[in-house]
Amino acid sequence: MELFISDLDGTLLDSQAQLSPVSLKILRMLLSDGLPFTVASARTPFSALPLLASLPLRLPWILMNGALLYDPVRQSFPDFVPLSPQAQKILAQAEERCGISGLLFTLEEGRLRCHCSPAAPPAAQHYFDWTALAPYPALWNGFGRRQAAELVSRPLLYGMYLDDRPQRLEQMASLLDGRGLTLDFYRDRYTEERWYLEVYSAQASKGLALARLQHMGAFTHIVAFGDGQNDLALFDACDEGYAVANACPALKAHADGIIPSNEADGVAVYLSKRWNCETDFDRQSLHSEYRR
């Protein structure tokens, strides 16, 4: 059984962080026809669930760069990778030393909770629209108000720190580098004056999460789509990996082929062509069109 899996931002989503009407129409049609499709994203369920609510996805999603799997049918989290106790202690020390507070995500009573200290910047305090999240029973509604040092007894999965200036985040990243954590430090693609530092277990990645997902289904051939550095591990775990035209050079060099950009609905158009290929000739033609 084939499985198709796509990154979200920069890959399946357009420059406005939305599914375009074209992609939405194509994907809804393909999913109703039985397309085995899911997503692998750095996004948390707090942003991914409302975003994908219009798609009838039934297979588990890979979220938080592989730190969490979400089952959209049972509305639960069948698998997760928390920070080790030592890594969590190191994160708490870095918060205190740098004077930084951010968004911290824990699993509590089977639901995902986001903590935001009162000392966090205003952008973090207003990061989520809680009214839009009310329909999702897998999520705690409203912030917990704890910092990393106060969460030692709870599974801490992910830390997200944001600032309009990169200097303090750079300092924090230097303290955390090589300490049993994976760091993703970047300028936001949607708000250029904002910077992010995302922190999660070194034992979590999209590729490792895909291996866990394979144990849940009889997938014999996996095809992935992506645009960024964090998709390298996903491509390594797949049989085929396709980079969108707007992808970073490293992923393009690693890909089996290049498909049209996210602005041109590249993933949805490719899937439509491939899912409707009924003969070996058609499939070979498709491969020659997009393969490197």
Automatic annotation (TrEMBL):
InterPro entries: HAD-like_sf (IPR036412), HAD_sf (IPR023214)
Alphabetical list of PANTHER family matching this protein: HAD SUPERFAMILY HYDROLASE-LIKE, TYPE 3 (PTHR10000:SF8), PHOSPHOSERINE PHOSPHATASE (PTHR10000)
The protein's name in its UniProt record: HAD family phosphatase
